[in-house]
Amino acid sequence: MDSSNHWYGHAHIFAAYCGLDGTNPPRINGILQHGWTFVHGFGYGHNPPKGFARFVWSDVCRRRGQAIGWRDYVVTGSPFLYLDGMLAPEPDAPEPEGTIWYPFHGTADYEGVTGDHDRLIAEIKETEPGPVTMCLYYVEYEQPQIRAKYEDAGFRVICHGKRGTFWTGGNHDFLHRQLRELRRHTRVASNRLSTATFYGAALGLEPAVYGDPMEFIGVKDGFNGEQLLEWTFHDLHGKHTDAAVARQIADRELGRDAMMSPEELREVFGWQDEWALTEAIEQEVVTA
């Protein structure tokens, strides 16, 4: 189906959870939501044809989609939440400290971002009480002039990897890296409410949204969504928030209450034949 099902290793996480090959996931009969969105779960170009399922993380997205006439929704919960339950904490991991910061990013395909990095760095230094890890999206990480600004500021600068294009070039352990990094910190921050903000909040980190919001190059005035997000999710904006309240919101947006069993996911993804084959091979090995 859509190659975005493999972005960030989502299909791989679900396959492993379902007892299938996590390095080579089967085809999913529909399209997975690949990032948090305040609308119906899908961005431009990811609307599946009629008859194929829209697999979204939360019932919130389903309701928003149905409000505009879309159907064929299946609510599964976020792959990140499944991974959190599957990936054991590192035994020698240090005590969490400091802030992991995710600046608003562009995409490699068609969207660039412009903003004042120096002003953002100054505000981060004024705000954050502990060490700062600056996590750049691969688009900005591969631009030496941007990466150097944050390195010269004394921040630890990292990148979780690439999402990939048409089933190639992506890091299938992207979310594994992100989860491990988030667990190392006590705060998660960004200059725009984003997927990473919700991931951190769902783990119990204190989220913060502040600083130069930056813009997509050429965006029309009033079309960047910033004011809408702040009005809708005011509890998550600001330099300091209530982590307990934020966790409740994150659980709702990521669909913690919609998470399925392996049997249920295999059913909705159309993976029954793959599972039957896996069981047959295992039985054959046992009896050989």
Summarize the entry for a quick read.
By secondary structure, the chain is α/β, with parallel strands linked by helices.
Topology:
Layout lengths: L9 H8 L12 E3 L20 E4 L2 H9 L5 E3 L3 H8 L12 E4 L10 E2 L2 H11 L4 E4 L2 H4 L2 H9 L3 E3 L15 H10 L3 E4 L4 H8 L3 E4 L5 E2 L9 H7 L10 H12 L7 H8 L2 H16 L1
Parallel strand pairs: 1-2, 2-3, 4-6, 4-8, 6-7, 8-9
Antiparallel strand pairs: 5-10
Helix pairs in contact: 1-3, 8-10
Number of helices: 12
Q: From the coordinates shown, what is the CATH architecture of the largest domain?
A: 3-Layer(aba) Sandwich
The main sheet orders its strands as 7-6-4-8-9
Number of strands: 10
Shape: globular
Q: How far is the first residue's CA from the last residue's CA? A: 36 Å
- N-to-C order of helices and strands: HEEHEHEEHEHHEHEHEEHHHH
Residues in helix, %: 25-40%
Oligomer: single chain
The structural domain count equals 2
CATH class of the largest domain: Alpha Beta
CATH fold assignment of the largest domain: Rossmann fold
Average pLDDT, rounded to a whole number, is: 89
Strand content is: 5-15%
Please state the structural category.
Answer: alpha/beta
Radius of gyration: 20 Å
Low-confidence stretches: 216-220
Query: How would you characterize the largest beta sheet?
Result: 5 strands, parallel
Question: How would you sum up this structure, described in words?
Answer:
- The chain has helices at residues 10-17, 59-67, 79-86, 117-127, 138-141, 144-152, 174-183, 195-202, 226-232, 243-254, 262-269, 272-287; strands at 30-32, 53-56, 73-75, 99-102, 113-114, 132-135, 156-158, 187-190, 206-209, 215-216.
- Strands 7-6-4-8-9 form a 5-stranded parallel β-sheet, with helices on both faces. The protein has a 3-stranded parallel β-sheet with strand order 1-2-3, covered by helices on one side. Strands 5-10 form a two-stranded antiparallel ribbon.
- Mean pLDDT is 89; it is low at 216-220.
- The radius of gyration is 20 Å and the shape is globular.
- The protein has 288 residues and is an alpha/beta fold.
- It is built from 12 helices and 10 strands.
- Helix 1 packs across helix 3 (79-86) and helix 8 crosses helix 10 (243-254).
- The protein folds into 2 domains: 3-78 and 255-287, no CATH class; 99-253, Rossmann fold.
